[in-house]
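job 3f2a | input accepted
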Amino acid sequence: MTKKSFKNISLGVIILVVLSLGGFFYYKLQKMKKNSADMVKKESQELLSKVSRLYLVSTKEEPTIATVSDPDKLKDQAFFSESKKGDKVLIFTQAGKAVLYRPDIDKIIAIAPFDTSNNSGTNPTPENKTTTNSGN
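job 3f2a | predicted structure (136 res):
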C-alpha cells in the first residue's frame, strides 16, 4: 500500500466518522427539542388542572403561562404586589382575566381583569387585584 492510498483511506474514514457523529448529535438535538416541548405542554396541563380545582377557569382557551422570576421589578404593579419568585401567571386573553398562582402552597394569590383592546401594541397587564382566601 502506498502512502497516497493510505492517506486517502485515512481521510475517508475520518470524514465518515465526522459525518456519523454529526448525524448522531443532530438526532439527539431533535429528540431533546421534542421532549422539551412535550414536557412544557405536560407541565402547562398540570398547572391548569391545579388552578382549575381552585378557580373556575375558561375551558375554551389555553392560557399563556409565565413564571415570576424577579418580583421586585413587579412590585409597583398592584397585581404583583404579593408575588414571589416562582409564582405562575395564567393569562386568559379571551376571558380577559389573569390569575396569579403560587404552586408551593397551592393557592391563588390574585385574580385580575384586564382589557385586551389596548392600542399601545404591548401586552395587556392586569390592573386590579382581587385576593382569594380559601380558608386553608
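job 3f2a | The chain is about 40% helix and 15% strand.
job 3f2a | closed
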